[in-house]
Amino acid sequence: MNIFSFPIRGFDNHGRGHYGAPRGSHTHQGIDLVCEAGTPIQSPIVGMITKIGWPYPDESRQHLRYVEITSEGWAYRVMYVEPLVELWQNVTAGDIICRSLTLKDIFPGITDHIHFEVIDSKNNHVDPTPVYLAGRSQLWDID
Predict the structure, then answer these.
(1) DSSP labels, 67-87
(2) Which of 34, 40, 35, 36 is closest to 16 using CA atoms?
(3) Which of 19, 107, 126, 143 has the fewest other C-beta atoms within 10 Å?
């Protein structure tokens, strides 16, 4: 499914899903998009798969992965997924790149979601909300 069709996670036992939400000693670096575990996730952009990584270093969370797509110097990450692509693969917006995973086993009471973040060419996290809103508006743009 298109990530722009998912709502941003509201409040649950583990906080909120908007950019900048408190996360202990730091702030949330992306947005959480609510979806059921097992949902096929489409690439939000045209680009190349430049990283398939782990958002957490500890072994109990090693099944949680992220897929990073780079386009024009910007990186777009989709986290808490099972990758279905290969490193250096070219993708088009709409290609299936991964499948969402449950977070409820690790974080009881959390709403299942994927995490979406945007990193600029200087390796700074930027608020992905404008990208999300632009993509969401295109879903309903009928010309």
Answers:
(1) EEEEETTEEEEEEEEEE-S-T
(2) 34
(3) 143
- The superfamily in CATH containing domain 3-139 is Glucose Permease (Domain IIA) (2.70.70.10)
Return the half-sphere exposure (C-beta side, CA atoms, 13 A cut-off) of residue 128. 27
Specify whether the CB–CB gap between 32 and 7 falls below 8 A: no
Whether pTM exceeds 0.85: yes
In the chain, what are the domain boundaries? 3-139
* Closest among 38, 103, 91 to 67, alpha carbons compared: 91
**Regions of the chain short of the pLDDT cut 50:** 142-143
Note whether 19 and 127 are within 8 A (CB): yes
